[in-house]
Amino acid sequence: MTRPxxxxxxIPYCLKRCGYCDFNTYTPGELKAGSDIAQVSNGYIDLLxxxxxxxxxxxxxxxPIPTIFFGGGTPTLMxxxxxxxxxxxxxxxxxxxxxxxxxxxxxxxTVSKAKLAALVAAGINRVSFGMQSAAPxxxxxxxxxxxxxxxxxxxxxxxxxxxxxxxxxxxxGTPSESISxxxxxxxxxxxxxxxxxxxxxxxxxxxxxLAAQVKRGEILIPDDDQTAxxxxxxxxxxxxxxxxxxxxxxxxKGGGECRxxxxxxxxxxxxxxxxxxxxxxxxxxxWNVKHPNAYRERIAGNISPIMESEILTDIQKESERxxxxxxxxxxxSKSSLSAESISNLxxxxxxxxxxxxxxxxGRVALTLSGRLMADRIVREILL
Length: 383
Prior knowledge:
The chain has helices at 37-41, 44-58, 80-94, 113-121, 136-142, 148-161, 179-190, 209-215, 224-240, 259-265, 292-300, 314-325, 339-350, 356-360, 368-371, 374-382; strands spanning 5-11, 65-72, 96-106, 126-132, 165-172, 196-201, 244-247, 250-252, 269-273, 278-281, 284-288, 306-311, 332-333, 363-364. It is an alpha/beta fold. α2 runs parallel beside α3.
């Protein structure tokens, strides 16, 4: 393998499950451990290190690690020194790029200024806070535990202790969220000391508490037109504030782009450590057993935690390439597409959904209106 290898590190614990969440995460109650997160996570860091040693034994690469991402779950429930142990092990085994990006997702309720300083000391240089909304009633619908005030405190602390990159995640389209609520959220986010924003339309995933509420008719999902209006409002305000879009749901100031996520969108190689974590190595995709107890049993028994794997076909690779690269600001090279696909796209160039300037320069790149119909344009390419 000649390409660099990034790492995703999954922390599968939360104190409370949000109503919209279908991620592979577990509360102490779900793991029959009362309310003691320390008990549930006891020894977990050692398991991650053990799996990373397996990665080292299987990966033939001398390239240093370019990016690492601690996701969850709630990674900031773990002690910074323990997260630092994982990083020290990876650096010893693989080496770090000089400009390595190390990101941690954070719930504003789980950090203090001292904890954030300890995370910086451990080597983490990018933090992404789950803000979601500045409207308390919207946070209540989402079952979020934090208050808007905690986001302000946490981002300011992160800035003060020396985080190089600070991001917030926003969600729009929550039931009961008005355009005014969303505008308040945007304005509040732009007042924070950040250089990156992710904004995602709420997706009601089957099996979640929110899905059950929708099915029972207790809450209503906003229509698609209102959701599109919220996206357009966000793009306008973010752009005026100097945060430019570089992926459908992500905006950044210069140099603030998330390089780890860009690696995903460009089909690079990464290894996912932890239960349920997915990996991709040179066209082979594999994923671990989902439950933390099963993961622990396998690692402790020197058994591979990998549950399943697949070798991507050429058709799968091309489909994923198109679906992911079209999301990026500069899109896809026209020379990589068939004559039929290019013919299918000419009406979108004429209609203003694909940039005329970039089309002339040999690229298929979405305009603002094109971003609202990205899925349709992908289907035209893959016909």
